[in-house]
Specification:
Shape: globular
Number of helices: 0
Structural class: mainly beta
Strand content: over 45%
Distance between the termini: 40 Å
Radius of gyration: 13 Å
């Protein structure tokens, strides 16, 4: 059983930056691919990006490509989401999740964090 806890969300002006962290405990973090998703109330969960278990591969949704960067530190059991050039449409609850392999699909992820709110003002 892996527990995931996100942090780093908040309120930022458009064009600003935030870095989200997701700390894992209770399992072998380095054996899981990690993903970030976002979800607004009443909407489906949207894939943001994912990183392989070793950190050598990443992929991103087209909507964030070039602005967001995922990284991980397996020694610290933590995955990060660096968000730059934020836009009001990036406002959402951001969740991290763990899977056996990288995927864009939420159903492939086994463990989920509770999420952290990101609000981008115009």
């Amino acid at each position: 059983q892996v527990q995931l806890v996100e942090s780093g969300g908040g309120l930022v002006q458009a064009g600003g930056s935030l870095r989200l962290s997701c700390a894992a405990s209770g399992g072998t973090f380095s054996s899981y691919a990690m993903g970030w998703f976002r979800q607004a109330p009443g909407k489906e969960r949207e894939f943001v990006g994912a990183i392989s278990w070793g950190g050598g591969s990443t992929r991103y949704a087209d909507s964030v490509k070039g602005r967001f960067t995922i990284s991980r530190d397996n020694a610290k059991n933590t995955v990060y989401l660096q968000m730059n050039s934020l836009k009001p449409e990036d406002t959402d609850v951001y969740c991290c999740a763990a899977a056996r392999s990288m995927s864009d699909y939420p159903s492939r992820y086994i463990y989920w964090g509770q999420g952290t709110q990101v609000t981008v003002s115009s």
